[in-house]
């Protein structure tokens, strides 16, 4: 059944939306729900080959999505999210008042083909575009297929009905004049450190490196973490820890990384279509973390995770390696070497005036010295 929602100038006046029930307070849409509303449900292994859904904008509470299906005309979906349901409009008109193929395939792609997916990031009631064409309160970035909708820094955490001030009860925001040189804890303090969690491409359980906050207790001098208590994989700040404004930004970046890597494990045939795009997004998030100041944090370690699900367990101290991060630009050059009957190319990497040598396995995305 199609239904009207609030009139919006960006759609035809008679536009009707198809409602889909969200299954919990996390704004999750499930594949089970989608399958109840669409027939026939695709079951072939390559059913979604070539399908692509690209978020291209957000206006008047609607996320605009371009859907491409092989051998069909590209269509546009307009998605509106309420507290208990999602409403979807397609510019095909949804013939027969049924959920159309473009909506079904497009939503499955947006869900990264998971069994359920949270659309809470699409839920911003009341934060409409102004007459000037800008949004006063939200930063909207739809340049890289996925859409990022976040409060502008000057407004901090914004209220949303049903979400309120998200995670507000778990955050104690510490006002500081500058985060550039964080104060070293006095000793035996509960602190937040950051780990570069990784394993190697040669492993069956390989995953790309991601930034993970961890909870630890410092030594008496306060200059290193003596005990690692837990990884923080859900943005929730422990009640007795004060987050700096930079750490709040880093934790948000970390959560995006975690979600991307988690969506690729295990790697299915359908996910292979998204793998390159998601790995590119992951690298962009690492650049974002450096711009946010990760290199200036007091406690940074590498962590050999082995398997990704180990990040849901207590950190193993023996796998932690203290490190420092450098933001120097690396320069790659090649030496042409005459071997007599053939030539070979040898890569030479320099950071600043230092030459970096290749020895054994390396952490992807990083140059180790």
Q: Could you explain the architecture of this structure?
A:
This protein folds into three domains: 18-139, no CATH class; 170-322, no CATH class; 328-369, no CATH class. It is 16% helix and 28% strand. Strand 16 (343-351) and strand 17 (354-356) form a beta hairpin. It has helices spanning 31-36, 101-110, 245-263, 269-292; strands spanning 18-21, 28-30, 52-59, 62-68, 75-81, 85-90, 116-118, 138-144, 146-151, 190-198, 210-218, 225-231, 300-304, 320-322, 330-338, 343-351, 354-356. The longest helix has 24 residues, at 269-292. The radius of gyration is 24 Å and the shape is globular. The N and C termini lie far apart (61 Å). It is α+β, with helices and mostly antiparallel strands and 369 residues long.
Furnish the topology, listing elements before pairings.
Blueprint: E1 18-21, E2 28-30, H1 31-36, E3 52-59, E4 62-68, E5 75-81, E6 85-90, H2 101-110, E7 116-118, E8 138-144, E9 146-151, E10 190-198, E11 210-218, E12 225-231, H3 245-263, H4 269-292, E13 300-304, E14 320-322, E15 330-338, E16 343-351, E17 354-356
Parallel strand pairs: 10-13
Antiparallel strand pairs: 1-6, 2-7, 3-4, 4-5, 5-6, 8-9, 10-11, 11-12, 13-14, 15-16, 16-17
